[in-house]
Amino acid sequence: MITIDGSMGEGGGQVLRSSLSLSAITGESIRIHNIRANRKRPGLMRQHLTACLATQEICNGDVTGAEVGSDEISLRPGNVRAGAYRFSVGTAGSTSLVLQTVLPILLQADGPSTVVISGGTHNPSSPPFDFLDACYFPALRAIGHKVTARLNSYGFYPAGGGEIEIDIEPAAETTAFVLEDRGEEMSRSLEAVLSNLPGNIAERELDNAGPALDVPEDNRHIRSRGSAGPGNVLFARLKFENVTALLTQFGERNVSAEQVANRLSKSVKTLLASNAAVTEHLADQLLLPMVLAKGGSFSTLSPSFHTKTNVEVISKFVDCQVGFTEANGAYQCDVNV
After folding, report:
1. 263 with 310, same domain?
2. pLDDT per residue over 89-142, tens digit each?
3. What's the distance, CA 193 to chain centroid?
4. Domain at 29, CATH number
């Protein structure tokens, strides 16, 4: 049994998610203690509990300690089974983070699967569905997996009520993922999404971010979407020759539209000032599918504490080497398996 200290590194939910995925994939039993010890509310929250129970179902395993608030769980995995699965977080907890736990497992299954997850689809502390669809799923397809997804309904935090659906067909043979050069920029656009909020919020966001990022007016869009509660998110989509980057900033209570626009503009300018092909959030998400395939390399921004922690967790299950080297205005990540 592998024992994982959930307080290692950044001490958040990623330690739990990667450990669950790798336990099911490798067949190694695990015990995780001090779960989310570095968070304001430590222990399992609803989305983490859903990830635990979903993993248990997919690998026909035995889990103990799986309840809200628990700071320790153990998993004895069985055999991974492809199939049709449906999971409900039951709150506005992130569907994306539950998916990031179960998707790597089902990519190792012996047949196609479909997964439907209900809960929050657009949460400030996790990647929204749009990011997965524009950035993460294309990377999985480049490795060789067939992944298609649908956003059946929006679920903004804190109301939730959204649903995503993913069709998964594992690759018969994988390819190393290589994305070191993003190529020339082809286009950039902005999209402000609103649900149950006044339209002038989106207008102000675009009026501030548009000029700051030199986005022409015909590439600035406002989308109104129905959901169970209010919500706002501002996207910047940068299309390069070899990759698309989607950067995100959520509207929040007591944060002005101008502040939202300024925060997004700052993150876009940071990416453009570098030669990185992969944003820091995508870099973190690519590591697990890469080590489970044939490795590869990509250029990114300076690796976050989150990413470094993920490397540490992965190394406890998989014999691999993951290194970051600074060069040419970016960091190159090499994954050798």
Report:
1. no
2. 988 999 999 999 999 999 999 999 999 999 999 999 899 999 999 999 999 999
3. 19
4. 3.30.110
Q: Rounded to two decimals, what is the model's pTM?
A: 0.96
Instruction: Give me the catalytic one of 122, 145, 281, 306.
Output: 306
H helices present in the chain, as ranges: 13-26, 46-59, 95-106, 129-131, 137-143, 199-212, 257-272, 280-291, 305-314
Record the tokens describing residue 88, joined without a space: 């409900």
Judging by beta carbons within 10 Å of its beta carbon (0-12, 13-18, 19+), is residue 195 exposed, middle or buried?
Answer: buried
**Residues 247 and 190: beta-carbon distance below 8 Å:** no
Cα separation of 104 and 97, whole Å? 12
Host domain of residue 103: 82-175
Q: 153: domain CATH number? A: 3.65.10.20
- Extract the tokens encoding 125: 């502390």
Cα distance between residue 35 and residue 42, in whole Å: 7
Residues of the chain with pLDDT under 50: none
The answer to whether residues 260 and 283 belong to one domain is no
Residue 281 a catalytic site member: no
Report the mean per-residue pLDDT for the chain: 96
Distances 332 to 91, 127, 270, 274, 299 between C-alpha atoms, Å: 38, 23, 17, 12, 4
DSSP secondary structure code for residue 219 in this structure: G
Give the pLDDT of residue 113. Answer: 98
